[in-house]
Design brief:
Elements: H1 10-24, H2 30-47, H3 57-78, E1 86-88, E2 92-94, E3 103-105, E4 108-109, H4 110-136, H5 139-145, H6 151-161, H7 163-180, H8 188-215, H9 226-251, H10 261-280, H11 294-316, H12 335-343, H13 347-350, H14 358-366, H15 376-379
Antiparallel strand pairs: 1-4, 2-3
Helix pairs in contact: 1-4, 1-11, 2-4, 2-12, 3-4, 5-6, 7-8, 9-10, 11-12
Length: 380
């Protein structure tokens, strides 16, 4: 029997998306990038809830398209033109010496243009991974799951990441109101009439969210003894320094052995201790904390499998993670990376369906357009 509908822990979705982004950052192979985009889109379509932030994924898609287009335009204008296959002959102009002698325009060649486009596609795929986490995870429930020591930073982050979902909802609300008034205009003139109401509605909703969070005590800290604050600050600073030294030791092969992994592990341990000490000074309650069960472990394991498959392909066949450009050839499909990305799509099938409210179920049954209605767990 399929699992009962419930909301998966938001931290699991974020860890899944971050793991995929890490794997994607290691490749410019168009086959792997398109496979990763398909995996992310499939999981979002299959498991996104009926909430305002779930509809913000479309904005991230358009943002990714814009990134690719801008990368190509910048290459044509300012990029280093290299390759053998000439696509377009454009006049060139060399800037003065104070501008480092950059050449504007010039002959556009296929190999250089493909390299620029694949770099943009890699960045766009990473943006889609972040957009998938925003669409699948409830940011308010994520704030409740953060340690108490991070609740101040978490409150600011939650307000920041809800801007895109609130903007998407505001656009739909304004467009729906315009259609009801018989105004179905398009183009630049319609954009001018829509932009100001959308910005005003988004600002009003952000202020309402900030007021609601302030009224519930987010961002407030009780009386903490000076000795306790100094202890927490000292442990946190020591952990950051140890982590920096550990990362430096891992990157620099000539450094002593004790600076690498031991320092990094010690810094992570000190960071966990600092979070525990800081959380003990914050007194708060969480209504209906999200459980971490088998579905959450499954989501995390699938995301790690996707990243591990790409990183394993980097060790086995590093040339397979990029498109051969000199000479230009067809891209290979590393089997370890492809298998890992396919495993990353399993949460779209094996995880519980998101909860659906009675109002949303009634609209689906009647064929009316769906409207986001928060469940009791989401509004908590």
């Amino acid at each position: 029997t399929p699992p009962l509908p419930r909301a998966v822990h938001p931290g699991a979705w974020w860890l899944w998306a971050i793991a995929l982004a890490v794997g994607v950052s290691a490749t410019t192979n168009p086959l792997l990038l398109l496979l990763a985009i398909s995996v992310v889109t499939f999981v979002v379509v299959s498991r996104r809830p009926s909430t305002p932030w779930a509809r913000a994924f479309r904005l991230y898609v358009w943002l990714g398209v814009l990134v690719v287009v801008l990368r190509l335009v910048l290459h044509v204008l300012l990029g280093l033109k290299w390759g053998e296959t000439v696509l377009l002959e454009l006049p060139s102009a060399t800037l003065p010496s104070w501008a480092a002698g950059i050449d504007l325009l010039g002959t556009v060649r296929l190999e250089g243009l493909l390299a620029a486009g694949l770099e943009g596609l890699r960045l766009a795929t990473m943006i889609l991974c972040v957009g998938a986490a925003n669409a699948l995870a409830n940011p308010k429930r994520l704030l409740a799951a953060l340690p108490g020591a991070l609740h101040e930073i978490g409150a600011a982050v939650v307000v920041a990441i809800t801007v895109a979902p609130q903007l998407a909802e505001s656009v739909q609300r304004v467009l729906r109101a315009r259609r009801l008034r018989g105004d179905a205009g398009r183009g630049l003139r319609a954009f001018r009439r829509v932009a100001m109401p959308v910005l005003q509605d988004t600002l009003d909703r952000s202020l309402m969210l900030a007021s609601a969070m302030d009224s519930r005590g987010y961002g407030r800290r009780g009386d903490v003894p000076l000795r306790r604050r100094r202890l927490v600050s000292g442990v946190t600073l020591a952990s950051l320094l140890a982590i920096c030294l550990g990362v430096y030791g891992l990157l620099d092969t000539r450094s002593p052995a004790w600076i690498g992994t031991p320092m990094l592990v010690g810094g992570i341990g000190l960071g966990a201790l600092g979070l525990r000490l800081g959380s003990a000074a914050v007194h708060r309650t969480v209504y209906r904390p999200d459980p971490w069960r088998g579905a959450e472990w499954l989501v995390l394991a699938c995301g790690v499998a996707g990243a591990a498959g790409v990183l394993a392909a980097q060790e086995i066949d590093p040339l397979g993670l990029s498109l051969p450009l000199q000479p230009l050839g067809a891209p290979a499909l590393p089997w370890t990376a492809a298998l890992g990305l396919l495993v990353a799509a399993l949460p779209g099938v094996l995880t519980p369906l998101p909860p659906v409210t009675r109002a949303s179920a009634a609209r689906r049954a009647s064929g009316a357009p769906a409207r986001a209605v928060a469940t009791p767990q989401e509004s908590a």
